[in-house]
From TrEMBL, chains A, B:
InterPro entries: Aminotransferase_I/II_large, DapL/ALD1, PyrdxlP-dep_Trfase, PyrdxlP-dep_Trfase_major, PyrdxlP-dep_Trfase_small. It comes from the Eukaryota. GO terms for biological process: systemic acquired resistance, salicylic acid mediated signaling pathway. Its cofactor is pyridoxal 5'-phosphate. It comes from Morus notabilis. This is LL-diaminopimelate aminotransferase. NCBIfam families: DAPAT_plant. GO terms for molecular function: pyridoxal phosphate binding; transaminase activity.
Length: 397, 397
């Protein structure tokens, strides 16, 4: 624990935002920082949750413990709706209270001396949970890296896909696509190379597809679109951004039966045991909501909300393009990744907050390769996004 | 992982019950095994959850991520309602998705080489999570114990309180009161001795008070009723049995500011970091339900449900007393612990299931000191409890 660098990024940003509001109580703060959904959940989904909750007061509707792995109807619905034609079965889907929680449960699954690779930049929980589990080694001030973590640099120069020919072999590869924070979705060809690389090295890929619902183009929405991926990849995903469930808490992890340790033992058996021992099932009311999300009408309604956020993303991206800055992401993800050449990203964060009352996230919070970049979240009410656009244009024009 | 003994107890029992129903499709199975609530949740509580859920479809009522540590109103309500006069503050209460999940998060908090003591018998998750985190040592067939775990025997001979004068010093002591499975609540004097013992040894007590709401007598409902406990104890608890939230998922952990590592660093700071990195907050709808449970009317309504289960417990206890068996528990807990002298508890389990179609739990599943004992759960519909009583009486008369 002592080895963890400073505050966890998101609480740190909340704290700075809070301090700012204390200093400027009259300013109208706009939050483009933490990727937190703002749009109401479609009625068809909340009605299903409300009905489920109310029924808990009746003898017929009351349910106690559910299966630790989740309600089978929901597991099957996830497999059939989101992994159609990929051959994923309901029993391979483990319903959870969210992707971040599953990442730490997956850390429990791994032996204590595994080696880990992450995209640089990436969502901090991969590294921070690795630090807590004692796999990261010492933090090196000079490089901004942990000694035992392999950082796979992803930047415009390599089309945000790591140069695997120089990437050290590790037991585990965390890979997030569409990526948080860069907003970049890996192509089919890139993911094929990733799967081949993992296969050649005997690595397990932990693939985070939490933002898959935002993909507009032909990029794969799941690692299991790649033939052979079931033998090397676990996929973590979530209803948080897909259905506005950030507070409702619902996610899932797919562990295919084909995935085996080098000794031939199926990983799914160990993961099942972790889930039964260290978790007691996702909240039943949230699971009722998850099922409603996957009904034809529910799915259509969530798609409309996602389209709203994607329009926000376009507004933010266009804002920075109009300022002649290099803009990435936003088309397959709710995040816009903007290059501020020659500037420290925490300085940019401070300047934007001080001068425009907009909370953002400094790219360096996601890893050393994020320096000089800023992440802007497209989650927000439209009027706030438009107002933020105006403020940013007047700051930088 | 390979070091884990056979199936996790509760899934194993579910499996045997399932197999039994396959063989006897017409038998009416009665479940007195896993402690799973059966009574509807009072309307005042489910209405609060349903309203919260419905409001998520409105701009005013929508909320995204909550604080990782829980909604402060709920944290304060827990502190003020359940820890009244014990000086626990809202910021020391970490709301979670259940006690079992918190136990594994507490395992993350501990260093990799800590030593652990548990009551014998005890809830299997303490040992099983210790095995997963690599602290348990080898399982020894002869003793039925893991080599590195200290088993504190609790039996009628020592009034279910361990003989501390012969207990080896450990870094951590898991202690559950009212105890699962024995149903015994520790007295104030016993807990004072436990706190003194921990203080003298520099141990941290992880105190599980999940069944506190069932206490009928003067036994402490919290370890913090003992002066000085804040310097040595973390308390884990749950709404599962208190309010029928087994499926709704809501619990909490108290980490007092006074609790420090030997180097003086406050444990609460590390736990906060674990919660922010490996957890993302309890489900918001469940938290709304938790708040309703702690309102005066909600609390009164949950008390009535608990009284119902306690009446069940009395029926079960009286059944076995009428059969001249030694009966423990049931008065301060929903569990009845019955001695079957000279018999293997899995044999008793199999016999009761085969001959009466009642699912129970063999005491040996909770540790070697549980051999010859059976645990009966008082959670059930009254008509089932009465029918179970009739069947058991005719089996053993």
């Amino acid at each position: 624990m002592e080895n963890l660098r400073n505050g966890y990024l998101f609480p740190e940003i909340s704290k700075r935002a809070f301090d700012h509001t204390q200093k400027h109580p009259d300013a109208r703060l706009i939050r483009l920082g933490i990727g937190d959904t703002t749009e109401p959940i479609p009625d068809i989904i909340t009605s299903a949750m409300a009905e489920y909750a109310k029924a808990l007061s009746t003898i017929e509707g009351y349910n106690g413990y559910g299966d630790e792995q989740g309600n089978m109807a929901l597991r099957v619905a996830i497999a059939e709706t989101l992994y159609r034609n990929m051959g994923i079965k309901g029993n391979e889907v483990f319903v959870s209270d969210g992707a971040q929680c599953d990442i730490s449960r997956l850390q429990m699954l791994l032996g204590s001396d595994v080696t880990v690779a992450v995209q640089d930049p990436s969502f901090p929980a991969y590294i921070d949970s690795s630090v807590i589990f004692g796999r990261a080694g010492k933090f090196e001030e000079e490089t901004g890296k942990y000694g035992n973590i392999v950082y796979m640099k992803c930047s415009p120069e390599n089309k945000f896909f790591p140069n695997l020919s120089i990437t050290r072999k590790t037991d585990v590869i965390f890979f997030c696509s569409p990526n948080n924070p860069t907003g970049n979705a890996a192509t089919k060809l890139q993911l094929q190379r990733l799967v081949e690389f993992a296969k050649a090295n005997g690595s397990i890929i932990i693939y985070d597809s939490s933002y898959a619902a935002f993909i507009s183009d032909e990029s794969p929405r799941s690692i299991y679109e790649i033939p052979g991926a079931k033998e090397v990849a676990i996929e973590v995903s979530s209803f948080s951004k897909f259905a506005g469930f950030t507070g409702v808490r619902l996610g899932w992890t797919v562990v295919p039966e084909e995935l085996k340790y080098t000794n031939g033992f199926p990983v799914i058996k160990d993961y099942d045991r972790i889930v039964c021992t260290c978790f007691n099932g996702a909240p039943s009311i949230s699971q009722a909501g998850g099922l409603a999300c996957l009904s034809p009408q529910g799915y259509e309604a969530t798609t409309a909300v996602i389209a709203y956020y994607k329009e926000n993303a376009k507004i933010i991206a266009d804002t920075f393009r109009s300022l002649a800055l290099k803009v990435y992401g936003g088309e397959n993800a709710p995040y816009i990744w903007v290059h501020f050449p020659g500037q420290k990203s925490w300085d940019v964060f401070n300047e934007i907050l001080a001068k425009t009352h907009i909370v953002t996230i400094p790219g360096s919070g996601f890893g050393p390769a994020g320096e000089e970049y800023m992440r802007f979240s497209a989650f927000g009410r439209r009027e706030n996004i438009l107002e933020a656009s105006r403020r940013l244009k007047s700051l930088y024009k």
